[in-house]
# Entry
Amino acid sequence: MPQLLPVHIVAGGLAIVLGGTALAVRKGGTLHRKSGILFVYAMLTMGISGSIMAARDGLNPNLLGGFMSAYFVVTALTAVRPPSAWTRRVDVGAVMLALSIAAIEIGMGVAALRRPRMAINGVPAFMLFFLATITLAGFAGDVRVMRSGALRGAARLRRHLWRMCFALFIAAGSFFSIRARVAKILPEPFLSGPMRALPVLLVFVRSTA
# Structure
């Protein structure tokens, strides 16, 4: 569906700006909360549109990427919401989704190892295993919350932060990995591989800090 491509690109660009804003401003403030909510909407739009477009090629890593984006931003949002029947239903669905995504990513990683270039749809096996590891970490956190109840204090904020940051990592990686896309916005000195990788690495470091 080519008509979804502009929606996907615009939503991804907005997600990067809004996610960066939420990280930069005072936590808990009005701007942080509003930019964070808008970031969730932008990520959901980017992920859903991306998955719909990728569905034309059957089950593939790009299709899973949209579901991963939705999983991380939604569970990050419920982490800071008061427990309710709605959040509990979301948590149950998130556990099932995360486990399914991780299992498929591992299966794709194994399949990629058997291919000449060890990649599926341009995504290398090591990246598929990396994504599966992160998804399983999210799954383990979901199970822990379901067993012990809603987190409080610093643990609650850590759960919220790393999930939001990893969703931002997905958006930044999707944008900065494509040189032609970056060239439409940034000048030549910022188009080299290391310069394009830097924002992605900074987000990843922030998400694991």
Remarks:
- Helices lie at 4-24, 30-54, 61-79, 85-113, 125-148, 153-176, 179-183, 193-208.
- The longest strand covers residues 119-120.
